[in-house]
Amino acid sequence: MRHPNVLIAFAAGLLALSACGKDIDKDAVDREFSGVNAIDGAGLTEVMLSAGDPDEAVAYFARSAEQDPTRIDFQRGLAKSLVRAKRYPEATSAWTQVIAHEGSTNDDRVALADALIRSNNWAQAEQVLNDIPPTHETFQRYRLEAMIADSHQQWQKADSFYEVAAGLTTKPASVLNNWGYSKLSRGDYADAEKLFADAIRQDPKLFTAKNNLVLARGAQGNYALPVMQMTQVERAELLQTLGLAAVKRGDVEIGKGLLRDALETHPQHFEAAARALDALEGTVTN
């Protein structure tokens, strides 16, 4: 990614170009570039939130929030960057600071609940969501409500929340995958298969949905890979998943054959499949 100093130089260059033919007070220009606000004006905040090293973004927003603690956008940027960096306990603390700000919104509270779930603090996340008015109906809110209902095995409630969440976004692949996994965990393999297939149609590159689809098919004794977009490496990994699913159902010989196919398909040495096959053949031999 472009580092902050490169973006600063770029912004300064644009300012210099725009100054051609005009009288500009140099001291005023220096003052404009003396703090982080001018950098923010050049779009660095959005760049740091969407690209590059998450830890770099954390450092940038931590520094910016320290320089101007009244700016809630810097506090939000810090909290979001900590989530991207998978530093969830710190993200929880950062989001707690955000919602203490007078400019905080219900979306910020939903983001806090998300960070709490990522930190495995489900009870507190549920309480945060319960304190948000029911009129706040967003994809993110219903996605989290569905996950919490799942954790309580409240299946009907979870299905309702997943359905609403899927209808509130133009990119439902991830929530359809989560919903499918919920069905998979309940043993509703046929429904799970349909949801995973829908998720893949929405996002053909979503490998977790492909892997879950194979698990759902394998659990029903269907050991054929579905027709879908996949790389050679993905095909090998999916054959391995299918092989292990077959073994779990007691179809050991079929599972061994699928693992051999995975080894032959993978363009490089496939250590995980090799270990699984060695273990199975050792068990059968013994």
TrEMBL record:
Which Pfam families does the record match to this protein?
Answer: TPR_16, TPR_19
Q: Which UniProt keywords apply?
A: Signal, TPR repeat
Family matches, as SMART domains:
TPR
Q: Does the keyword Signal apply?
A: yes
Q: Where is the signal peptide?
A: 1-21
In terms of PROSITE patterns, this protein maps to: PROKAR_LIPOPROTEIN, TPR
InterPro entries referenced in this protein's UniProt entry, alphabetically: TPR-like_helical_dom_sf, TPR_rpt
- Repeat (TPR) residue spans along the chain: 173-206
Please identify the protein, giving its name as recorded.
Answer: Flp pilus assembly protein TadD, contains TPR repeats
Species of origin: Alloyangia pacifica
